[in-house]
Amino acid sequence: LLYTIKFESENMAMFGVTVVLMGTLLAQAMSDSEMTIDNNEFLLYNKAYFKSRLRQIGTGATSFGTYNFEINDKQLWRFEPHPQKKGCYFIINEAYDYYRFALKMGTGLVVYKGPYWDDQLFKLVPSGKKDDYYYITSCTYPDYKI
After folding, report:
1. Which of these, 33, 37, 109, 138, could form a disulfide with 14 (CB 3.0-4.6 Å)?
2. Which residues pair with 145 in a beta bridge?
3. DSSP helix/strand/coil, 30
4. What is the CA radius of gyration of the chain?
5. Which residues contact 73 (CB under 8 A, 6 or more apart)?
6. CB-hemisphere CA count at 13 Å for 50?
7. Which residues in the chain come in under a pLDDT of 70?
8. Given this model, what pLDDT does residue 36 score?
9. How far apart are CA 18 and CA 52, in angstroms?
10. Residue range 67-108, pLDDT digits in tens
11. Which of 67, 64, 76 lies closest to 20, judged by CA?
12. What is the DSSP track for 66-119?
C-alpha cells in the first residue's frame, strides 16, 4: 500500500529531503481518517527539487542519493515502527532489505545493515505551516532532521 503526502525538511548538514507518500491518501484525507504510517512504503522527495526522490544505490554507508526519473523499488522506504517507542520508525529500503537510515554523530546520515540502535529511529513532525509537509526528525537527536 502506497500513500501520498508531503514531508519537508529544513537545511540539514547532509541535504534536505522531503517525503511524498504516493497512493491513496486523498481518499483517506477526505474521510477524515488518520493515515497509517506503520509498515507502509513511501517515496521521499526533496521539497526544493520536487522531482528528486531519495534512493539507495548500493550497500555502502553513503550509497544513497536522489533520482528524478522512473520510480523503482530502490526509492521505496518502509516505515517500521519501534515496538516500544511510539511514533518512532526505522526507515528501511525496499530493494536493499534490512538497510536502514541511521544518523551517526560525526558521520551524518548513512544507510546501515546490522543491529538495531536508537540512532536509526525517526519521527514525522508537521512543519507547522499548514502545508501538508513534515520534518523527518531523529528520535535520538531531536535537533537533527533528514
Report:
1. 109
2. 137
3. helix
4. 14
5. 94, 95
6. 3
7. 1-34
8. 86
9. 9
10. 999 999 999 999 999 999 999 999 999 999 999 999 998 889
11. 76
12. EE-SS--GGGEEEEEEPSSSTT-EEEEESSSTT-EEEEETTTEEEEE-SS--GG
Distance in angstroms (rounded) separating the CA atoms of residues 55 and 85: 26
pTM for the full predicted model: 0.77
Contact 19, 45 (CB under 8 A): yes
Looking at every residue in the chain, the average pLDDT score rounds to 79
CA angle 89, 12, 15 (to 5 degrees): 90
Query: What's the pLDDT score for residue 10?
Result: 38
Nearest-angstrom CA–CA distance, 39 and 3: 12
What local confidence, expressed as pLDDT, does residue 80 receive?
97
Residue carrying C-alpha cell 508531503: 6
